[in-house]
Amino acid sequence: MKETGESKEQQLTVALRIRPLSDAEQEEGATIVAHRVDEQVVVLMDPMEDPDDILRANRSREKTYMFDVAFDFSASQEEVYRATTKGLIEGLISGYNATVFAYGPTGCGKTYTMLGTDKEPGIYVRTLNDLFRAIEETSDDMLYSVSMSYLEIYNEMIRDLLNPSSGFLDLREDAKGVIQVAGITEVSTINAQEIMELLMKGNKLRTQEPTAANKTSSRSHAVLQVAVKQQSRSRDVLQEVRFARLFMIDLAGSERAAQTQNRGQRLKEGAHINRSLLALGNCINALSDKAGNKYVNYRDSKLTRLLKDSLGGNSRTVMIAHISPASVAFEESRNTLTYADRAKSIRTRVKKNLINVSYHIAQYTSIISDLRSEIQRLKKKIADQAGHIYSITYYPFFCGCWLCL
After folding, report:
1. pTM over 0.85
2. Do 20 and 153 belong to one domain?
3. Judgement on whether residues 282 and 368 belong to the same structural domain of the protein
4. Suppose 351 and one of 5, 149, 332, 339 were both cysteines; which one would form an S-S bond, judging by CB atoms 3.0 to 4.6 Å apart?
5. How many domains does one find in the chain?
C-alpha cells in the first residue's frame, strides 16, 4: 500500500460574528462600539474618545478590520454555517482534513454558534446532517465508516465526555506525527440522530460554572472529532481508500478576572483557560510571523498540541471569532480582533489522505495461499530438526541417580 496525495497551500479562513447587546449590558448603559460595515469589514471605536477632542483626532483608537466574512446580530445560524463550514464537507469526503473552531471572550456566543439550540441548531448539527446526507447520496457506489469522539480539556486535563468514568487521558504522537488521545471512546455510526444524542449527552457533562460575565460559562475547551473513511464497494479491486478527520471545537472564553469577578477555584480555572489561550495566541503569532519564524511552540498546552495540524499542518481550517459590540467589552473585543486579524496570515499545506491499493483481490488470494504453504514448510522443517536433536540427545537407560527415578 502506498500513501499518496499532493499537498497544496491553503489560507486559514477567518470569520467574525458580533452578538447582540445582552440585557446586562443594556442595563449598564453600554453603547455599541463594534459595527459591521459590509460583508467583510468591521469597525471598532474607542468608547473613551471624545469626538470633539481635536488634539486626539490624529491618534484615534478607532480601527477597521477586514475578514473573509463578517456577521452582525441579524445573521442566522444557517447563514453562518453556509458561509464558514458547509464548503468543507465535500473536501472531507474526498480525503481532506478540516477544522472549525470558535474563539473569543466568555459570553460572546461561541457555544451558541457551535452547538446552538433545539430550534436554532449550530454548526455541529448542521455539519453532521449534511455529511450524512452526502454519504447517503453516494452510498450505492462507496462504502463508508464514520466514527466520532467528544472530549473536553479542563484545567489542562483531558476528559472523555462520552465516557467520563475513564478518568483523565493523555495525548500521544504516532510515528507520522499525528496527535492521538490515548483511550478515547470512539463511536462508529452512520446515523446523524444517534451522534447528536450522544453529543447532547456529552455536552451536559461538560464543565460549566456561572461567572459575572456569563451565567453558563463553559470552563473547558470542547472538541468533537469525526473520522470518515471511504472506499469502493467493488469486490474485484480496491483502487482507493480515502480517510479524513474533522475537528469542531468550542473553545473556553478568554477572560479578565476583574470582568468575571472570579475567586478561589474559578480564579484558578480562569488562569488555566488563559494559559492555554495564550499558548494558542503565541502559536498564531508565530505562524503569522512575516519574518518567517520557523519554530512554533505547540507544546505549551494540550490545546495547542491537539490543534497542531489544524493551525499549521494538514487541514483546511476555519476560525470563527466572536465579540460583544458593547463599550464595556472594548478591551476584550480589541484583543480578539487583533488575534483574528493575525490568523488571516496563517497558511497550511493540505494533502488528500488516500491509500492506493495496487494488488488485485485474486493476487491477494494467491499471496495468502503462498504464505500458508511457506508456513507449513517451515513448521515441517522445525519439526524435523527437533526430531533430529532428540535422537542425538536421548539416552535409553537410567543412571540410577535420584533425578532419573
Report:
1. no
2. yes
3. no
4. 5
5. 2
Residue located via cell numbers 499549521: 312
| 104 annotated to a ligand binding site | yes
Task: List the chain pLDDT tens, one digit each, 405 residues.
Answer: 344 456 788 899 999 999 999 999 999 999 999 999 999 999 999 887 655 555 555 455 689 999 999 999 999 999 999 999 999 999 999 899 999 999 999 889 999 999 888 899 999 989 999 999 999 888 888 888 899 999 999 888 999 999 988 889 999 988 777 888 999 999 987 777 787 788 888 888 887 654 444 444 567 899 999 999 988 777 655 567 899 999 999 998 875 544 544 444 555 655 667 788 889 989 998 998 865 667 889 988 999 999 998 998 899 999 999 999 999 999 999 999 999 999 999 998 899 998 765 545 556 666 787 788 888 888 888 887 776 655 554 444 445 554 444
- Asked if residue 264 belongs to a known ligand binding site, the reply is no
Residues 381 and 246 in one domain: no
**Cα–Cα dist 391/108, whole Å:** 84
**Residue 105, annotated ligand binder?**
yes
Supply the CATH number for residue 336's domain.
3.40.850.10
Task: Say whether 302 counts as a known binding-site residue.
Answer: no
**396 assigned binding-site residue:** no
3 state SS of 274: helix
Domain span at 396: 360-405
HSE-up of 317 (CA within 13 Å, CB side)?
A: 29
Q: Does 111 count as an annotated binding residue?
A: yes
Same domain, 282 and 404: no
110 known member of a binding site: yes
Grid cell listed for 259: 470582568
